[in-house]
Specification:
Layout (H helix, E strand, L loop, with lengths): L1 H17 L1 H13 L6 E2 L2 E2 L2 H6 L3 H26 L8 H21 L3
Length: 113
């Protein structure tokens, strides 16, 4: 049981460390504002092309699936807490909920429609 707990805690730590760059870019975006056009080493896109480009459909799909994952993980953790499941993964279930919360918050902070 300690191995599963250790692996679950390590998973939460890895997921949290992956969101650090998102949080730092969020703070930069709030301070400096969003760029109006895309710029990289190949050149600058026009405003017309920038407004035509959309990632709305994949973002909606990811948002729905992340909320569903959070709902399922929370339901399993609550059922495990109430003793209505046969597993003994109390802490692991709540660590899983923490991972889904972190993922959902990460997605919502990066989601700019």
């Amino acid at each position: 049981m300690k191995l599963e707990l250790l692996l679950g805690a390590a998973g939460v730590g890895v997921i949290f460390s992956c969101t650090i760059s998102s949080l730092s870019s969020l703070l930069r975006t709030r301070k400096c504002g969003l760029p109006q056009v895309y710029v990289d080493e190949d050149g600058i896109s026009t405003e017309e092309l920038t407004t035509k480009f959309t990632t709305k459909t994949p973002k909606i799909a990811i948002g729905i699936l992340s909320c569903l994952g959070l709902a399922v993980a929370t339901s399993l953790a609550i059922l495990g807490t109430l003793g209505r499941t046969d597993d003994s993964l109390f802490i692991e279930d709540w660590l899983n909920v923490g991972s889904w919360v972190d993922f959902t918050v990460h997605f919502r902070k990066r989601n700019i429609c």
